[in-house]
Amino acid sequence: MNADLFTQQTLSDSVGRALEISLRGTDELLPHDEWVRKLQRSEATGTPLRIKLGLDPTAPDIHIGHTVVLNKMRQLQDLGHTVIFLIGDFTTTIGDPSGRDSTRPPLTREQIEANAQTYYRQASLVLDPAKTEIRYNSEWSDPLGARGLIQLASRYTVARMMERDDFTKRFKGGQSIAVHEFLYPLMQGYDSVALKSDLELGGTDQKFNLLMGRHLQQEYGQEPQCILTMPLLEGLDGVQKMSKSKGNYIAVAEEPNAMFAKVLSISDTLMWRWYTLLSFRSIEEIAALKAAIEAGGNPKEAKVALAREITTRFHSAAAADAAEQDFVNRSKGGVPDEIPEVMLSGAPLGIAQVLKQAGLAASTSEGNRLIDGGGVRVDSTVISDKGLKLSDGSYVVQVGKRKFARVTLGA
């Protein structure tokens, strides 16, 4: 009998359920059998497993791409295991070379501290704060010192480091690799030693770093962690992975109306990928929804349902209702309930000047281009005359689908 099949058949109900939850939506779980044994030991002893996720505060916001692994952490947390949310305030000073074709510029300590302040608050929108252990890797990395860092570096070879795909490509392409970049995977791996982690989660681009943790734990006489990689979520463009640096992301702290609208902006094809990785609906529910669309249903309805689910998660059901209504109003040319109020003087005032002074266009030239493109409305009427002047009064001025201002114009 196949060993894996035998193991599966002899699992208790609770371990089998925990394994099923661990595997749902994952890219890889390595090594599978070791994770099963850890789950069985945890059940037998009543000792929770230590599950680690590290994020570097490279920008002030966590985006919904990060929540792919946070969702998995929450699922494991709900099974009773100890979740460690690790803020990489030390590793950020090095800069993660993963997926990079050039050296990543390190952030200043002030930038890192400012960004780190928001990270845990935003992650708590997914994780249960009362059951989450928050740590900073400067706790053990700063005291390591130069001597400790050299001793750590002696536990891994340059040859093995160069097996890393992005280092290999850069080396063969004649692109520079700074020596300090070798320290990043070492320091991330050392985090696992310091935390005595049983499982580390990350995106597929983190596999090398996660395996480093296993190696270093063995070097330091610990039982090695298992690793679980989650697929990378494509961003709004549907091509590149969601990234703060690429600007194709939705921050978890995004304003509800903008969050709802951005989800609706993705392609029908990308929608199903997002359902798989972001939705808490069951696999069966998603399959039924997809079948209904393939049978002739309107894909927009499925996309609206996804937008509602995501907006509700990070705000509230009431905020999702309001965001949906706001989107409907905008799509029909309606006016949102809340728009900026702007007081201007100088009536009669040229429309391009109104756009500039109301903050709806960067310049009068841009305002004229918007008018030429049919993107400007005054009180719901499309403006085509660039010579139009507005007299005293109050007007709702709109640019595109999402920019509004209620302009009160005086002499």
UniProtKB/TrEMBL annotation:
Gene3D superfamilies according to UniProt: HUPs (3.40.50.620), RNA-binding S4 domain (3.10.290.10), Tyrosyl-Transfer RNA Synthetase (1.10.240.10)
CDD domains: S4, TyrRS_core
Reaction catalyzed: tRNA(Tyr) + L-tyrosine + ATP = L-tyrosyl-tRNA(Tyr) + AMP + diphosphate + H(+)
E.C. no: 6.1.1.1
InterPro entries: aa-tRNA-synth_I_CS, aa-tRNA-synth_Ic, Rossmann-like_a/b/a_fold, S4_RNA-bd, S4_RNA-bd_sf, Tyr-tRNA-ligase, Tyr-tRNA-ligase_bac-type, Tyr-tRNA-ligase_bac_2
Subcellular location: Cytoplasm
Chief localization: cytoplasm
Superkingdom, taxonomy of origin: Bacteria
Enzyme type, top EC level: ligase
Residues annotated for ATP binding in this entry: K244
Domain spans labelled RNA-binding S4: 349-410
Quaternary structure annotation from Swiss-Prot or TrEMBL: Homodimer.
Described function: Catalyzes the attachment of tyrosine to tRNA(Tyr) in a two-step reaction: tyrosine is first activated by ATP to form Tyr-AMP and then transferred to the acceptor end of tRNA(Tyr).
NCBIfam families, per database record: tyrS
Protein name per its UniProtKB record: Tyrosine--tRNA ligase
Organism of this sequence: Variovorax ginsengisoli
Biological classification of the source: Bacteria, Pseudomonadati, Pseudomonadota, Betaproteobacteria, Burkholderiales
Record gene name: tyrS
